[in-house]
Amino acid sequence: VPRPKIEQKKRVSFSATDLSAIFNSPVFTQGARPLGGRGEAAYWIPLLGLWSGARLEEIGQLLTTNVEEEDGIHFLRITHDAEAGQTVKTATSRRRVPLHPELIRLGFLDYVRNLDREGTACLFPLLVSGASRQLTASWSQWWGRYLRKEVKITDSRKVFHSFRHGFKDACRDSDIPKELNDRLTGHG
User: Interior CA angle at 61 toward 55 and 63, to 5°?
Assistant: First the structure.
């Protein structure tokens, strides 16, 4: 009887060493804003991925109006609004995700307020993509190159989605009930 193939996971979480390397890289420590990183998207998109567990496209298509506050709690509203160019993977992907205090400490709310003052609706106005591609497609390619060349993470299973896997792992490790974990990440 032939042995079953052991399939390698397509994507895996970033390790603590990986996260240290990412967030000690020039984008986060020296204010570098590489052209492919599309300005402040290079800085904020990975941080939002780390602290929210949101999918890359969910983050990339956010508008300033999707950053809301209720009862003193700031959150991201991830929604489907075809007119605004916002889509979600599934119906359960529509959700409100609280902003982690670290994002607030780092100045995310100030960043959003500045965009609002400038009259800029998109959180990441420099993200552009072809009509048939996702908004974050080019950014995703840049991120892969940045991980491999600048950060030196060479495992091809470690991609932006690894933040999402890490968020799910952290929720499990913190004994957050599966239902809440799924709700935060938009799983059914």
Answer: 125
* 63 touches 122 (CB < 8 A): yes
11 Cβ partners below 8 Å, 6+ apart? 157, 158, 159, 161, 162, 165
CB 11 within 8 A of CB 162: yes
Spatial CB neighbours of 72, under 8 Å, sequence gap ≥ 6 = none
pLDDT, tens digit (0-9, with 9 covering 90-100), for 139-178: 999 999 999 999 999 999 999 999 999 999 999 999 999 9
Low-confidence residues of the chain: pLDDT under 50: none
* pTM score, whole prediction: 0.92
Q: Which residues of 149-181 are buried (b: 16+ CB within 10 A; e: fewer)?
A: eebebeeeebbbbbbbbbbbeebeeeeeeeeeb
